Amino acid sequence: MTLTKSLLLGSAATLVAVAGAQAADLPSKKAAPATYVKVCDAYGAGFFYIPGTDTCLHVGGYVRAEYQYTPAVNTYNTQGVLVTAMAATTSAPKNLQDTTGYEVRGRIEVDARTPTSMGPARTFVRLRTASTSGIRSATYTNAVGVGQGAAAANAITLEAAMVQWAGFTFGKAPENYAMMPGIMYGGAAWAGFPNGMNQIAYTQNFGGGFSATVALEDRRDSFVATGSATNSTPTNGIVYVGNVRLDQSWGMAAVHGLVSPNSYYTTAAGALTGYTAGDFNAEYSLTSSTTAASTKNKQGWAIGSTVQLKLPMIAAGDQLWLTANYADGAMSALLGGSSYAAVNTASQVRLLGGLVRNIGSLAVTSATTVDTVKGWNVGGLFTHYWAAQWRSNFAASYVAIKAPTTALTTMQWGDAALQNYMGSIIYSPAKDLDIGLEVQYASLKNKVQNGTAALTDSTGLKSSNWSTKLRVERNF
Question: What superfamily in CATH does domain 43-475 come from?
């Protein structure tokens, strides 16, 4: 028995040795190529490594469809007389105005980050395309921005294209003064610039949630119309912007400020009329037709504060935003790119209609002088989750504009006051899919100086209207 066991064990050992030798002679097989994307969790969810590199990439965007209804309202010509017939230099009567509009948007963004010894080097690009018609169309315009039968329009907008590294930002990036979120696009009466700013900026993090940013921004991007473009030529195209902020688990608090150049060019020194009959676009413009040229300059500035409070004790996701700002010759700090900054073009006529004003940063005060327009605003936004799939936004804001007194006998706009209220209900049946209904109401009271009997400083003119939108949006 012992001999039999020995023979069996020896035979097995011999077979194993032979098999191992034959296996060593066979060509080795390479590992199968990876058929998966390697996740990069260093920068948050959704990032993955570009194969063969140490760069992490994130691709995202959204598709949004909006359907809007805004009731037609009476409109007035430059002397405050009700318009009863279509006129290219004035406006359209109520019965000839469009009341509906459509807008479909698609946005794509790419975020690439590579680690370096001084923090990640980031490249970010965001493009937005839009197809619009009716009152949402970019071709929907005349003297005060109302008309009929506007054709569909298509456009591509570069929202952001920036390089960030070691605290620096170069390119087109979010504005550094505006802090309030754009929950309802183009409707809030506070600073906001959804198309970004051309800029050079530097942000320093001090630890403990404290940070500070200084930036040189392109003034044209933050420009709130103060007249026709040919009369609004900055001698210095830089806006100096800064903010200091504290980010904590309870929310955020920030103080922000800017210094902005203002200048007007006129073809005649000492012939500033300040108003062009029949042209609402030229409110506060400097017009002339004789002799030598001159430029009138006034510096503008603004300061404000914004606070975000997270309110999980009410419901998960609830938050309250508050802002207050004062501006002297820098109305972009109060209105930014909202629908009330210059209500004389297609994108701004979506709500008020009627006789409205450009809220510009400069006003003509005599035949040879200009002065800055001053103002302040307060605003708040509250987001509440009724349930995991249901949420609402409620917003209110007030803007007061103080125009300098003019010695001219031609008509000029005086003080103004704007009230704005918004609300929405949003249903999210799946992650990043929103179906919402929005309602907005605004009232704008205009006063004038040196107006006709139909347009007097004591009465002024009041424009008010409401608007509603159905929005379907899918983010990815």
Answer: Porin (2.40.160.10)
